[in-house]
């Protein structure tokens, strides 16, 4: 399904919404039963509830973003953010969508009493990153609150959306927002992968995560996504590489030497870098580059073939996983010379119009070549 068909889906939905006199809101829930529900959260813990939950406090930004997309805004009693640097700006952004929510303390400062006073019976927090401490979890549970760990991002994003539907609406519940999102997502992903074909199967790439100063190996979902579009992860050519985790630290024993050796043997074609969620300008992309291992003189990563060839691309983190991951498919394909038939501005515009977001379509992809950084976001 190409962009024209995608537009038909989005326009049809928006037309129904417009007729109702709203800017958006697709929700036409098919509620599940009111009986007991059970989910397994992102930590692997089985959680049981006598009935769907009503009010929750959320931590960080991915979780309320997902709840907003599903249209369950009234179920959020409080919003907590992790960093003091972005607490106020995040509150100003999210409070518009959740006017009934209370502005909570920073995630690591939240107390059980504060959560209960907000009227919540549970708190939804990320699994490992930017989340509550183990001591907080114990105190919350001792107070009678349920701790639910869901990232609503990365590998588990879509599955977590399904779990949220069950948590708030019960077993067997449906959600028109979710169905519309999946139709949008699948139509774009299937089209991009189909157009990519197998024409680049002899190519190799490296995918670097700036926030973790590590490389994604072949066990990661992001590596699999790129491989569905372009070449193979060069780390596959390293014998006995530890793939028990999805990434390998750039400074781990022997990795630098192994990557240099495989590059010397058979040049790596492209280097992809996952920036941060604030990588939205040439200036911020430059910071990502200068802080990377490729710019450090004490390491030899700066001599890799894709760097000297000017085949380095930095992506805003938000399009690499989560709700906008379908944009990542387009961006990766386009910088690899594959004409997808889509433009980023068009698909993000349709996403915004359909689900009521204000995501920017500018400053999402940057190219590093000859010391210069340029914005190459597919218009």
Compact overview of the structure:
This protein is α/β, with parallel strands linked by helices and 379 residues long. Helices cover 36% and strands 16% of the residues.
List strands and helices in order, with pairings.
Layout: H1 3-19, E1 37-40, E2 46-49, E3 56-59, H2 62-70, E4 76-80, H3 87-94, E5 102-103, H4 112-117, E6 122-125, H5 134-142, E7 146-149, H6 157-169, H7 176-196, E8 204-209, E9 214-216, H8 221-227, E10 232-233, E11 247-249, H9 255-265, E12 270-274, H10 282-290, H11 305-308, E13 312-315, H12 325-335, H13 344-355, E14 365-369, E15 372-375
Structure overview:
The chain is of the alpha/beta class. 36% of the residues lie in helices and 16% in strands. The chain contains 13 helices and 15 strands. It has helices at residues 3-19, 62-70, 87-94, 112-117, 134-142, 157-169, 176-196, 221-227, 255-265, 282-290, 305-308, 325-335, 344-355, and strands at residues 37-40, 46-49, 56-59, 76-80, 102-103, 122-125, 146-149, 204-209, 214-216, 232-233, 247-249, 270-274, 312-315, 365-369, 372-375. Strands 8, 9, 10, 11, 12, 13, 14 and 15 form an eight-stranded mixed beta sheet that branches. Strands 5-4-3-6-7 form a five-stranded parallel beta sheet, sandwiched between helices. The chain has a two-stranded antiparallel sheet with strand order 1-2. Strand 3, helix 2 (62-70) and strand 4 (76-80) form a beta-alpha-beta unit. The longest helix is centred in the middle third of the chain and has 21 residues, at 176-196. The protein is globular. The two termini are 20 Å apart.
């Amino acid at each position: 399904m190409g962009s024209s068909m995608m537009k038909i889906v989005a326009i049809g939905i928006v037309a129904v919404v417009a007729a109702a006199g709203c800017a958006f809101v697709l929700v036409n829930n098919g509620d599940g039963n009111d009986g007991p529900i059970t989910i397994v959260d992102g930590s692997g813990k089985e959680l049981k509830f006598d009935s769907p939950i009503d009010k929750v406090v959320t931590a960080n930004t991915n979780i309320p973003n997902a709840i907003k997309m599903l249209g369950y805004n009234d179920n959020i009693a409080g919003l907590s953010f992790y960093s003091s640097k972005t607490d106020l700006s995040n509150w100003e952004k999210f409070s518009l969508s959740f006017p009934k929510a209370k502005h909570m303390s920073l995630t690591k400062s939240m107390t059980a009493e504060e959560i209960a006073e907000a009227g919540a019976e549970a708190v939804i927090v990320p699994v490992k990153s930017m989340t509550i401490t183990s001591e907080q979890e114990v105190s919350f549970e001792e107070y009678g609150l349920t701790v639910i760990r869901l990232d609503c991002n990365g590998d588990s994003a879509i599955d977590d959306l399904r779990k949220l539907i069950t948590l708030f609406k019960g077993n067997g519940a449906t959600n028109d927002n979710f169905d519309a999102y999946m139709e949008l997502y699948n139509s774009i992903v299937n089209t991009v992968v189909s157009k990519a074909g197998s024409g680049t199967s002899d190519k190799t790439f490296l995918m670097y995560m700036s926030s973790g100063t590590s490389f994604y190996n072949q066990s990661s979902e992001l590596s699999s996504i790129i491989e569905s579009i372009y070449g193979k992860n060069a780390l596959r050519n390293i014998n006995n590489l530890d793939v028990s985790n999805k990434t390998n630290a750039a400074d781990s024993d022997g990795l630098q030497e192994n990557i240099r050796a495989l590059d010397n043997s058979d040049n790596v074609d492209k280097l992809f870098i996952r920036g941060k969620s604030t990588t939205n300008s040439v200036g911020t992309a430059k910071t990502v580059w200068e802080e990377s291992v490729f710019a450090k003189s004490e390491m030899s990563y700066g001599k890799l073939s894709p760097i000297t060839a000017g085949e380095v691309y930095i992506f805003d983190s938000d399009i690499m996983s989560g709700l906008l991951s379908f944009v990542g498919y387009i961006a990766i394909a386009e910088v690899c010379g594959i004409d997808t038939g889509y433009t980023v501005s068009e698909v993000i515009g349709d996403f915004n119009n359909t689900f009521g977001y204000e995501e920017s379509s500018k400053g999402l992809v940057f190219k590093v070549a000859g010391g210069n950084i340029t914005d190459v976001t597919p218009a």
